[in-house]
Amino acid sequence: MSTHTEEHTxxxxxxxxVVRYRLARRSVRExxxxxxxxxxxxxxxxxxxxxxxxxxxKPFRKERQAIKLCDGCPLIAACLVQEMREAPSxxxxxxxxxxxAQAERRALYLVLDEKGxx
Length: 118
Description:
Layout: H1 14-27, H2 61-70, H3 76-86, H4 102-114
């Protein structure tokens, strides 16, 4: 019997992420090169923590720090759409991006791939 308990959070579920992705895909055109985002001016290592949380559990401290850096970014939807379009496989979806933890985006990628939306 395991003594480890998973800590559930108010993070978005996969169904909600699919809806967000579909809406973002319709509205996202081109990323304007003149927009300076936090991720472009921050150490990239912050977005790739050594340990990543699993799906349905609270993101680890370093993941939460990176997720917080994405808050309020004007390109958060474009960031998600770009990654889903460009990742050749679920294993290329790593770190924190678009305000989502790795496990959340991997789950989204798998659902999108299954539904033929990539």
